[in-house]
Amino acid sequence: MKKTSSLYRAIAKSMLGRYAVYAVNLLSMMVMARVFTPETFGTVAAIMVFYVFFQLMAEVGLGPAIINLGHLAREDRDGLFGLTLTIGLLLAFLFTALAPLFLSFYQLPRVDEVVPYIAVSLLFFAASIVPHALLLREQAFYRIANGGLAGELLGTIATISLAQLIDPLHALAAKGAFSAGTLFFVIWYFSANTEFGRPLPGRKFSAIKPLLGFSGYQFGFNFINYFSRNLDNILVGKYMGATALGNYDKAYQLMKYPLMLLTFAMTPAIQPVIRQHAGDPRKVEEIHRDFTFKLSLLGAAAGLAMYVLAKWIILFALGDQWLDVVPIIRILAIAIPVQVVLSTSGSFFQAMNRADLLFLSGSLSAVVMVSAISVGIIARDMEILCWGLVAAFHINFVQAYYYLYRKVFFAPLHQHLVRMTPAAGVVLGMVAYSLLPSLL
């Protein structure tokens, strides 16, 4: 019980810090949804998809690898920091140079104008990788939250102010650069109080060699996961247009808020705590089983609330110009319970040093997700696309936990699935209510 309580204490600290950031993020979205049009949001979202890919290239799985380290010499620490800065600078230049290709791919007017702002965000993201990992390793969640809060506040204030002075598209695109820059400077400052100290630019790039085994599989998983989670945005933007992408992106963003509140706020705490018990799979499985059962009940409640209150949520959060989002978010809400639980699985693979199995599971997930997305895009139907995603998330839930239980915990999978029964009942109820009118 002591080990379980240590996880919950760490999670509580992580959640309290993150919730302040999420609250400001939600308020920011509510304000900006009334200032900028779906088309403007869609144009920026089209480039943000590629920004996420370049983030993966910059991070190369280093963050989780650093968290698992027991020792890191100052020269190695600075070498890793110098390496990430160099990679970030090179990728920022490459990203800027690709602007004509992005314009040619999407055929969306002015999409290339967003690129320089996102390139600046990419540089600051790369610079944040090492200090952020050092703070996570120390479970310094409040300090990380302070950086996120400062970044979100400054980014939102700057964006709203710029919208009164310059082109709205440029103002919205600049938000990420302000946020990423502020976040970097805050967490870099706070990293001085970590065990390994504040990193400075170094030249020992070879410090990455001992981390390549773990970080290589982590990067492979992130790379594959990127395509399975972002291909929908890429193809919606290309084949359905900026307005459709703006609506879809906002629906997906709102659907992710329960995940942010229930999962994303918790997962930073899981790896640093569980890695201390990596030699005892049975104990970790007991902690996991108790944790995910409680999480599944919260996810079921959140999914049902978003399904029932979809219209009111849209009107409150975005305004009446976004009412086309309502049927999309109702379908996506059905996937919230399973995603809330599934999103924590990666941290357990990482904490148990099984990034190889995480990579394998991620590869299978990508095949399922890409297949579901392809069906929706071929049909040119947003609702079919969303139903495909709901099905894909549930299939991937089963295969991911098969590997976690059989290959990591060495325990039968049914122990986990039985605990998910209450949440499964809620999901089946939402599916039945959605499909019943069309079957009658």
UniProtKB/TrEMBL annotation:
Its main location: membrane. The chain crosses the membrane at residues 20-37, 43-67, 79-102, 114-136, 148-166, 172-190, 211-228, 257-274, 295-319, 325-345, 357-378, 384-405, 417-436. It is a multi-pass membrane protein. The keyword Cell membrane applies. Signal peptide: none annotated. Pfam families: Polysacc_synt_3. Keywords: Cell membrane, Membrane, Transmembrane, Transmembrane helix. It is found in: Cell membrane. InterPro entries: Poly_Biosynth_Transport. Belongs to the polysaccharide synthase family. This is Oligosaccharide flippase family protein. The lineage of its organism: Bacteria, Pseudomonadati, Pseudomonadota, Gammaproteobacteria, Pseudomonadales.
